[in-house]
């Protein structure tokens, strides 16, 4: 199989490596807005060589892993250039706007909107690894809009990579992900900023940080380009989840202000169910 | 050496195990508000047997690892019962109120306020392990108020456990810890609550959570009794750090609302220094 990976960062690079691991005859070419990323991806053996949009008619599978606000326009360029049995899959962390913008595309049935629930706080080709998707969930949206033979192929690829498929509407996807992923990133980025803002003597303060702080700000290391696009694309759902979070922080503030130790304990206990859910 | 560990949870239990590991002749007895904890600590070999406040004259070292709002009163009971060469050390995560309440105690010079920067999100005797303090920092407050021979002994014990000593005023301790520890816990507890509140179909949603969510809500598993006490004892500093955090969340909200993608990217980039600080 001939694959073109558009975007050779953490997700696109790992997808290239995973496909080559599980389908040994696969050849992957790549494309990236960053020349340095392309060179790095070639040097690391992630892709064989650089591709061009005008060459896309040679590929059977095109994976799009660029910032979410560039996915729809990239997909349009890709669809314009592929052969009639090629499959195009995007890996975006938001789905509603992308699906909407491509809904009426004449080649919509060659496109499958997907989102792997996998990643780390690191980015770029050098963060890629073949087993990133092993055991992870792959969310698929609007499968009925993709040609049956093509979507069946996609399912087979993902399952071969060790992924579990889950089907959701784009809207449900974006709502849920706002809570369990995007809000965690907002919280972490702003927590990192708060501590950096207020502590002039950095070394002093960070030497006092235990593993708890490291854990809560880990996501603040994530790629700002990737995440500013996700927050913008999923603006309404992110704002809704953020307001719910702010309300709870205000509730916490009130309870503390009122010296209500029992109320505070109850408030903390109300979240202890997390233990049973997240191991 | 004869040690009494008052509180045999994660910290007191680990301190008992660590002292026995590094000082093989040590005998540790224990005391805990929870009968079940005492029994568990004996069964796990953390302590030899249960102690009583009235027996404390037999011990050379008393470690206090109870919720911070009970430390000062516990220390008073302990100091009333020890012999004249015994040392009492507390392990509390807050220091200003404890130091203040004990400042004029007639046996203040047998007490040393300390705080190990070590812990996990788990609690109770079964969460204890001997190497918890290896390589960790031990913050010491007001050393000059502790008798020279006794504080020297304490430093030797902690260093033998692989800890690095750091001296701070109680106020500076509480200010810094509010930012790098207490605020992370507030953020994590309330993030956990927000997601639990809003998602009625729990299984569905948590199956979508990636490792990022697990990382940011990890601290929400922490013991509510321990943490409601810490937040209450360090109320003013926690509120100050929380307000700074809320301000940054509002700033984020504004930037998103205004569709200011470039501003958003800059905002996220402003925290990327975290990468160089937290590895």
Outline of this structure?
In chain A, helix 6 packs across helix 10 (235-257). Chain A is built from twelve helices and seven strands.
Write up this protein.
The structure is a homodimer of 279-residue chains. With 279 residues, chain A is of the alpha/beta class. Chain A folds into 2 domains: 167 residues, NAD(P)-binding Rossmann-like Domain (Rossmann fold); 105 residues, 6-phosphogluconate dehydrogenase C-terminal fold (Orthogonal Bundle), CATH 1.10.3660.10. In chain A, 49% of the residues lie in helices and 12% in strands. Chain A contains 12 helices and 7 strands. Chain A has a 7-stranded mixed beta sheet, with helices on both faces. In chain A, helix 3 runs parallel beside helix 4 and helix 6 packs across helix 10. The model of chain A has no long low-confidence stretch (mean pLDDT 94).
């Amino acid at each position: 199989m001939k694959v073109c990976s558009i975007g050779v960062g953490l997700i696109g690079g790992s997808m290239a490596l995973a496909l080559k691991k599980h389908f040994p005859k696969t050849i992957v070419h790549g494309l990236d807005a960053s020349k340095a990323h392309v060179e790095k991806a070639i040097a690391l053996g992630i892709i064989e060589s650089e591709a061009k949009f005008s060459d896309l008619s040679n590929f059977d599978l095109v994976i799009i892993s660029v910032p979410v606000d560039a996915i729809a326009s990239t997909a349009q360029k890709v669809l314009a250039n592929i052969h009639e049995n090629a499959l195009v899959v995007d890996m975006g962390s938001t789905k509603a706007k992308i699906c909407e913008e491509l809904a009426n595309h004449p080649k919509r049935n060659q496109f499958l909107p997907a989102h792997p629930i996998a990643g780390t706080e690191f980015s770029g080709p050098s963060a890629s690894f073949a087993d990133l998707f092993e055991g992870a969930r792959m969310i698929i949206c609007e499968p009925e809009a993709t040609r049956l033979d093509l979507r069946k192929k996609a399912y087979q690829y993902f399952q071969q990579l060790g992924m579990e498929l889950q089907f959701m509407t784009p809207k449900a996807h974006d709502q849920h992900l706002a809570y369990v992923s995007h809000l965690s990133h907002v919280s972490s980025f702003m927590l990192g900023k708060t501590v950096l803002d207020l502590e002039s003597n950095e070394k002093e303060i960070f030497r006092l940080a235990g593993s708890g702080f490291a854990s809560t700000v880990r996501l603040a290391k994530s790629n700002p380009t990737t995440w500013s696009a996700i927050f913008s694309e999923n603006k309404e759902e992110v704002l809704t989840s953020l307001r719910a979070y702010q309300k709870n922080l205000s509730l916490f503030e009130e309870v503390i202000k009122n010296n209500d130790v029992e109320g505070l304990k109850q408030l903390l206990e109300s979240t202890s169910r997390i233990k049973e859910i997240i191991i």
